[in-house]
Specification:
Blueprint: H1 3-14, H2 18-28, H3 36-48, H4 52-65, H5 70-82, H6 86-99, H7 104-116, H8 120-133, H9 138-150, H10 154-161, H11 173-185, H12 189-202, H13 207-219, H14 223-235, H15 242-258, H16 262-272, H17 280-293, H18 296-318, H19 338-343, E1 357-360, H20 367-375, E2 380-382, H21 388-399, H22 412-429, E3 437-441, H23 449-455, E4 460-465, H24 468-476, H25 483-488, H26 492-513, E5 516-521, H27 522-527, H28 529-539, H29 546-549, H30 551-556, H31 585-588, H32 592-602
Parallel strand pairs: 1-3, 1-4, 2-3, 4-5
Helix pairs in contact: 1-2, 1-3, 2-3, 3-4, 4-5, 5-6, 5-7, 6-7, 7-8, 7-9, 8-9, 9-10, 9-11, 11-12, 12-13, 13-14, 13-15, 14-15, 15-16, 16-17, 17-18, 24-26, 26-32
């Protein structure tokens, strides 16, 4: 076949005229029925017209004519994927990769297909291989970071995205949106906002960017800006897809809920429904509305569906957490025995004023309230939750896993280096004010008490305590990012066992290590806020507790609060959270015997706050 004909057909495809390209191909085919170039162009023109069955047949024929062609196998895989034949598509992509391991295209497309199929761990492996082919490929790094986030490898995603500011300007709106989406998955929301605001400044009507930025503004507690970003688009959204309309409705429901328009939020959510068969977030949101409306039966029904769907979905990323033999609360944190602790060598370590203040407690026990109080004091500086001790443990595990069995093997140099790594990680997250003492708030750092005590033995620790039943209810209603925590919250029974197991471990290790600790009881804090603030200030050796009393004003001045309680800590202290569980008492009756040891230990009973005090 002559080059002019090929050029003419290719030009028609590139100009967006696939029907014309098809016509030219069919005119040439009788003379050149086995010409690979002609067949390829015909398949491409049919594919562009969504004539998938016809395109599939020709691509398949090309793999028979040239079985060693990675290109033909990749094209065949792509049309199989578009036709919904995902298993066959995966096999064809694998064949294309086998034929040419240096070709990035099939690896990229296979990785994206695996993400679509929720096989996040396999997608991560494929897309990390893609990055290894070309370390400088921005698109490969962003795709691999998405797979890392979805498979709970948040640290790996951070490593891939670390140089993202050096990539700017991207000069590709789609890639910029994708980077913003992945940064949001990583909970690096302020960075995502920068990219989205830049994109919308250039393309004000970009629907997906506006939707995501509106969601970001809601996370910033900028409710009017979020409303202004999404509402005009909804009114003009004649060309929106159903998925985009559904996303907009969920965001508007969130904004209605923030405005206390409970009926409006419920109507929006019930009308739009979930975005798909795996949209467990929809049911968590619906349960929150039902709960605030006082419809406890509907709330529990929505929560059961949310957890059912969440367990089905998260098995793709963390199957080990959802097996019958899985522990109630998955953890890889090491323990310490009294005998081990007695053998720990005395090492030089920072004094209390040079150590972080650690705020710990079971999730939903009031740790965010404490953190915002402390951060409001000019002598203290907090940061969003970070898994620093998990990361330090990974470092030790890679060096020698046996170290985690007994921290007594760590010597002076080891502890000094680990503290340097800790402070380096902190510096990556916040701009340190060196005239302020660091506050490290992470609820489940209570599992890492032995490592905290090994590195910062003089550190002051504030332990947040709340009625176990209110904690359990609040956790059960929460859509957690962590798959391990989500697994622990799958049922009230499992959650109660997790609470008792974690608390029992904490109490045992506190009795062994004897850290410098105070217990902050949530109920005391909200019932007598000034006195409890003064008590905390005295424990931390702060001269004045007054700045803590205005924590809500301080929180509202922040750009971003990266915890699930971001919408609550901008309000003054109130008593709405006391005794909420009593409205769900029938659901709690089976788990009260499980919680009884902790209720007894902390002096709580099952009648406390049965009628919550007025706000």
């Amino acid at each position: 076949m002559n080059a002019h004909t090929v050029s003419q057909i290719a030009a028609a495809i590139n100009a967006g005229h696939p029907a014309r390209a098809e016509q030219l191909c069919r005119q040439a085919l009788p003379e050149f029925p086995q010409d690979e170039d002609l067949l390829l162009l015909l398949a491409m023109s049919l594919h562009a017209q969504q004539q998938l069955a016809a395109a599939r047949s020709i691509y398949a024929e090309l793999t028979r004519l040239a079985p060693a062609s990675s290109l033909h196998w990749n094209n065949y895989a792509t049309v199989l994927a578009d036709a919904g034949a995902h298993d066959e598509a995966q096999a064809a992509y694998a064949k294309a990769i086998q034929l040419d391991p240096t070709n990035p295209l099939p690896k990229s497309q296979l990785g994206l297909l695996l993400i679509e199929q929720h096989d996040y761990l396999a997608a991560r492996d494929v897309l990390l291989d893609l990055v290894a082919l070309d370390q400088e490929s921005v698109q490969a790094r962003i795709q691999a970071a998405r797979a890392c986030c979805l498979s709970q490898d948040i640290r790996g995603a951070g490593d891939l995205l670390k140089p993202w500011r050096h990539w700017l300007p991207l000069n590709d709106d789609g890639l910029q949106l994708e980077l913003a989406q992945v940064l949001t998955l990583r909970n690096d929301v302020p960075a995502a906002a920068e990219l989205l605001e830049d994109l919308i400044a250039r393309r004000p009507a970009h629907p997906k960017a506006r939707l995501l930025l509106a969601s970001v503004y809601e996370r910033f507690n900028r409710l009017a800006d979020a409303e202004a970003m999404v509402s005009p688009m909804v009114r003009m959204a004649a060309d929106w897809t159903d998925a985009m309309r559904n996303e907009a409705d969920h965001l508007l429901a969130t904004l209605a809920l923030r405005r206390k328009d409970l009926v409006g939020a419920r109507q929006l959510l019930e009308l739009c429904g979930p975005q798909g068969d795996d949209d467990y977030a929809h049911y968590f949101q619906l349960a929150s509305v039902y709960d605030k409306l006082g419809d406890t039966t509907a709330a529990m029904g929505a929560l059961r569906e949310a957890h059912r769907l969440e367990a089905r979905e998260r098995r793709f990323e963390s199957l080990e957490h959802f097996t019958p033999a899985a522990p109630a609360m998955p953890t890889d944190a090491p323990r310490v025995s009294a005998e081990q602790y007695a053998r720990w060598p005395q090492l030089i370590a920072p004094e209390a004023h040079d150590s972080p203040v650690f705020v710990v407690g079971f999730p939903r026990s009031g740790t965010t309230l404490l953190e915002q109080m402390l951060d409001a004091h000019p002598g203290l500086q907090s940061m969003d939750e970070n898994p620093f001790f998990n990361n330090l443990a990974d470092t030790l595990r890679q060096h020698d896993p046996r170290i985690l069995d007994d921290f007594g093997v760590l010597r002076q140099f080891d502890c000094d280096e680990l503290r340097k790594r800790y402070h380096a990680m902190v510096a990556e997250r916040i701009a340190r004010r060196w005239d302020a003492q660091l506050v490290d708030k992470n609820p489940l750092n209570m599992q890492w008490l032995p490592m905290i005590h090994r590195l910062f033995p003089a550190a002051k620790i504030i332990f947040a305590l709340r009625h176990p039943c209110d904690v359990i209810l609040s956790c059960y209603m929460q859509n957690f990012r962590s798959s391990g925590l989500a697994a622990a919250c799958n049922t009230l029974t499992r959650l109660a066992h997790a609470y008792v197991e974690i608390m029992t471990c904490w109490l045992e290790e506190v009795s062994i290590l004897q850290p410098d600790m105070m217990v902050s009881r949530y109920e005391d804090l909200v019932l007598d806020f000034p006195q409890q603030a003064a008590r905390i200030a005295q424990f931390l050796e702060l001269e004045d507790a007054v700045p803590m009393l205005s924590f809500d004003q301080h929180a509202r001045s922040k750009t971003y609060i990266g915890t699930p309680s971001y919408s609550q800590v901008i309000e003054p202290v109130n008593r709405k959270g006391l005794g909420r569980w009593h409205r769900y008492r029938s659901e709690f009756e089976p788990v009260l015997p499980i919680l009884e040891p902790m209720l007894r230990h902390w002096g709580y009973d099952t009648e406390m706050y049965s009628s919550s005090p007025a706000n």
